[in-house]
Amino acid sequence: MPESAEPVRRTSWVAGPSRRRVIGSTAGAGLGLAAGALPQVAHAAAPPLLGTYDIVVIGSGAAGMTAALTAAKQGLSCVVVEKAGTFGGSAARSGAGIWIPNNSVILAAGVPDTPAKAAAYLAAVVGNDVPADRQKAFLDHGPAMLSFVMANSPLRFRWMEGYSDYYPDLPGGLPGGRSIEPDQLDGNILGAELARLNPAYLSTPAGMVVFSADYKWLALTAVSAKGLAVATECLARGTKAALLGQKPLTMGQSLAAGLRAGLLAADVPVWLGTPLTELYVEGGAVTGAVVTKNGSPGLVRARRGVIVGSGGFEHNAAMRGQYQEAPIGTAWTVGAKENTGDGIRAGQVVGGALGLMDDAWWGPAIPLPDQPWFCLAERTLPGGLFVNAAGARFVNEAAPYSDVVHTMYERDTPGASHIPAWLIVDQNYRNRYLFKDVAPTLPFPQAWYDSGAVHKAWTLDALAGSIGVPAGALRTTVDRFNSLARQGDDVDFGRGDSAYDHYYTDPSIQPNSCLAPLWLPPYYAFRIVPGDLGTKGGLVTDAKGRVLRGDGSVIRGLYAAGNASAAVMGRSYAGAGSTIGPAMTFGYVAAMHVAGRL
């Protein structure tokens, strides 16, 4: 039973002001300056001039490259400066889901979207956390951005059919989903530049071409005819690509490579290994960026504006400790390792207000020894449940991943620890489903056990002892869960009530594809921590992408997009791709505004 005697059936995360909210909302207090003024940033002496462009873009992720491509196609000169030695940032590592309502790809596929539905849904999801004009800007300009990208790069996109909006029961929500992903791209179009593409978070199986939408079926290959068919199709794509001499790219690799190809065709330089040091201020406006290039500082002047698309601060331990609730750290994120908040801090120095700094694009993660594993299918497939330190279940495990972590933090107290939590499964689960990249029935790497990320025992009592939870409570929780699974109705937490809950599940399990009892030893426990895809707090911007002071006035010449800005999604998550879709859209919006087109 849940800790509260009242059944919990949530469709969205709703809570009063937590300590994280208080910290986050006060973090930007006092940053506002008098309208029209910028702090006097001390420049001991102007560093050597590296070049002058109409627009300087900081960061080569989805936001930055979309901004640069847009600027170039509006006839503006542009340069992209990138801290890493590779391009693509976190976008290149991702599955590259993109959430943009009413785009041409989903409309052509017959998705029954309308502007009214999208506006109602986004407003219901975001609430009052984000101004209505910013929400409207995203919805108005997202479809145009996507059409622009397809017209000016080799990128094409596919509808992720059936990947539900995360709250499909809210007004305007679509159970069939609005998310898209990049189509297959041949990496040969980049030539030698392909070697500088940031690697994927998870390598595609050798010889296969896999889309994000395929993974839900690949997890079921051992138990589903559809799963086997999809695996066969992935192999056929890989074989065809090999015969044609292609270097097939999908997901984030395709997205980053396609945008980079667009920049190459538009003659936009991308300076790798060139971190931002500070923003340059003259005459009350941001007029450039001081960077370190080839080991030496230099100034890149911007005639019209600087667009910051440098990502979040997920790998900055000091910033996470300052703004976010403990326990927190840099070891649980899957964001690009170079994301240490450089652009956010530079914007703050020149007076930019900050918002949502306490929040992130959360998701339950297993801290494996090489890197954290962000759990999608694993926590949703039937035959598994989450328990806290008291051995009690506390959440709908199949809920949107950000909501699960919000719940972990909200309920985590010294007397009732929810961090870490534990995912409990049995051997029946292991016999049926892929787990990360470990095929059904195969043993997990010993390093997983040695690190404490995974525990295994032949009885629930022994497993409880191994992970330090009360044995009687764990047995009672599993017994209760099993009874709910057999009847197919999770009256405690509503797992399976939403169409979203069923995306990463096993359709052969009835009456509820989310639920199956645990009965076959040995049993496994996976350590669950609050992982993230990146932080979602940053510089506060307006509907044009301009950075604002605390008093709401505009900092001339300074724009931000992507995870360097406070997210248009507020504290929620509308659907798969709610990070990348807005990042690309506001990169486009910022560049169009600089060009005088918006």
DSSP E strands, number = 21
How much strand content do the residues show?
Answer: 15-25%
Taking the alpha carbons of the first and last residues, their distance comes to 54 Å
Output the radius of gyration: 24 Å
Category from helices, strands and their pairing: alpha+beta
Q: Please tell me what the overall shape is.
A: globular
Main sheet specs: 8 strands, mixed
User: Level of helix content?
Assistant: 25-40%
Low-confidence region ranges: 1-37
Overall mean pLDDT score? 92
Number of helices: 18
Domain FAD-dependent oxidoreductase 2 FAD-binding: 54-580
Keywords: FAD, Flavoprotein, Oxidoreductase
Cofactor: FAD
Protein name: 3-oxosteroid 1-dehydrogenase
Structural overview:
Its cofactor is FAD. This is 3-oxosteroid 1-dehydrogenase. By secondary structure, the protein is α+β, with helices and mostly antiparallel strands. It has 18 helices and 21 strands. Strands 1, 2, 8, 9, 10, 11, 20 and 21 form an 8-stranded mixed beta sheet that branches. A hairpin with a 5-residue loop joins β20 and β21. The longest helix is centred in the first third of the chain and has 21 residues.
SSE layout and pairings?
Blueprint: H1 19-27, E1 49-58, H2 62-73, E2 78-81, H3 89-93, E3 98-99, H4 104-108, H5 115-126, H6 132-152, E4 157-159, E5 179-182, E6 185-186, H7 215-218, H8 225-243, E7 248-249, H9 251-265, E8 270-271, E9 276-282, E10 285-293, E11 296-308, H10 317-323, H11 342-349, E12 354-355, E13 360-367, E14 372-374, H12 377-380, E15 384-387, H13 401-411, E16 421-426, H14 427-432, H15 446-450, E17 454-457, H16 460-467, H17 471-487, E18 523-535, E19 538-539, E20 546-548, E21 554-560, H18 580-594
Parallel strand pairs: 1-2, 1-11, 2-8, 11-21
Antiparallel strand pairs: 3-5, 4-5, 6-7, 9-10, 10-11, 12-19, 13-14, 13-18, 15-16, 16-18, 17-18, 20-21
Helix pairs in contact: 2-9, 2-18, 5-6, 6-18, 16-17
